[in-house]
Amino acid sequence: MKQHFIGNQWVAPSSGDAIPVIDPSDGQPFESLARGNASDIDQAVGAARAAYEGAWGRLSAAERGRLLQKLAQKMLDHAEELAQLEARDCGKPLRQARADAAAVARYFEFYAGAADKLHGETIPYQNGYTVLTIREPHGVTGHIIPWNYPLQIFGRSVGAALAAGNACVVKPAEDACLSLLRVAELAAQVGFPEGALNIVTGYGQEAGDALVRHPGIDHVSFTGSPAIGKLVACAAAENHTPVTLELGGKSPQIVFADADFEAMLPVVVNAIVQNAGQTCSAGSRLLVERSAYEEVVARLSVAFGKLRVGPASMDLDCGPLIRQTQLQRVVGFLEEVRRDGLPITSQGQVVAEAPKTGFYQAPTLVRDVPPGHRLAQEEVFGPVIAAMPFDDEAHALRLANGTAYGLVASVWSRDGSRQMRLARKLRCGQVFINNYGAGGGIELPFGGVKASGHGREKGFEALYGFTVLKTISIKHD
Ligand code: NAD
Predict the structure, then answer these.
(1) Which of 90, 168, 177, 280 is the catalytic position?
(2) How far is CA 369 from CA 56, 330, 365, 426, in A?
(3) pTM, 2 dp
């Protein structure tokens, strides 16, 4: 059994219980994790507090940056090992897992460089006063991480929190987190003081809930579903603990007839197929100007028909979904699509070599989806794209903004004025013009509005969220 990592040591769960780790490619258990509870969380928070008030808290910003840089290099040295772990654990095609391993190192590199550049300001005030602001760490931060991109989400959340000077307690997802346990071990090897970075594995309603409610936690960063995000925000409110919420999305790609289709098509395919559509910023809605709708749908159908799905180790276009219940969820959406008579235009293929016990879903293109249909409104978190036509810019905007979510959006058009008009009116946290980042871009602030959450991670902006601003007013002659 993989144990918790607390105070730079492997620690057995106080319950003695384990959680099986299932390989999504064949549906078989291949490892087990410690089933953490409130007592384990308490131990980890205690270790983090001691680090914050001790060796970790005494480091200068430059020294913290140097440690983060060492960890970034160590992760690069172990990139293939981390990628192999992530691929098996999450069912990601190896290419994607390798990109994630490179990304987590890059997050640490970015925040290593930023650690000593996070400064306050002086404020002009009345004569006889000097007023300044300083940015201080929250103290001990809690991080709840989902299973879809363990390495990347750890990088953007924990990397920034450590750079800002916090000591961290991480509760990763019960479905996939082996790579993070290895990263914590690497952090200890490069010299992170005991307790600066702690990982307690376990179920959300046990270890996760205990972390959010712990009075020793000074800030919570949660990435996951809107439903659990709401629970987390309510639980954190009991102690007035500030929360950053990175939740789901139903992100639109808006394609005008004047767009460069050659450039657009592969990006649109990738934005829904990457990670088998289990990406918060997946491009799951395709809005196309009516005059180009038939052509775009026809060309996209051809591309979808060529997609191949199989085990992570085969490194095809698409891997399995994370677990059986996720597969059932996606299948449920497609049953509704068939029942309601919506045309499934094209599907990829699950290869014959894929084990029958794995959790495979062929990428699926559904056209003419009414804007109010569940497929056009709710997050599927699978490789299913909903296409629909629009008549003009105003109609496109109404459709794009017409869900509960607001994470990212893209505009595909050669018209510069239209690009900016839409960019300003789209209600979301990121707008891509003639590209689609699918959440990519370590340097780019990321986060949502509405049901997609609040607060920003990634980029320099994330550092502000992991600090508290203090104003100091000095009266003098
Ligand atoms: P989830 O909300 O079920 O779980 C996320 C994490 O929360 C897991 O670690 C889980 O153990 C924990 N958790 C569950 N119940 C909890 C509780 N009561 N208290 C505290 N923690 C609890 O989500 P999921 O199924 O793991 O992930 C999929 C969802 O996450 C999708 O909606 C997706 O869009 C979203 N997501 C968002 C982003 C983003 O940056 N916006 C990134 C990745 C995933």
Answers:
(1) 280
(2) 53, 16, 10, 21
(3) 0.97
